[in-house]
Amino acid sequence: MKIICPVCGTEFVGEYDDDCPVCDWEYDGIELKGEEIWDKELKAPNPVTLGEARKLFAEGKNIWGEPLKKQ
After folding, report:
1. Which of 43, 45, 51, 61 has the smallest set of CB atoms within 10 Å of its CB?
2. How far is the C-alpha of 30 from the C-alpha of 67, rounded, in Å?
3. Average model confidence (pLDDT) for the chain?
4. Which pLDDT value is given to residue 68?
């Protein structure tokens, strides 16, 4: 299925629990519900909240705080 990463907007083909090839966010589908709570609450298995991941991406980092992979 086509997935749009809720962190960086990258489109990729995958399934639930696949990692985004750009920012490493593990997609589990809960983001589809549009609940703002995930911006502020830690959602395992990702090490940061969705809001923190978006901030890291804006700084050029993946969810682990490492530089983004070159595409």
Report:
1. 45
2. 26
3. 84
4. 94
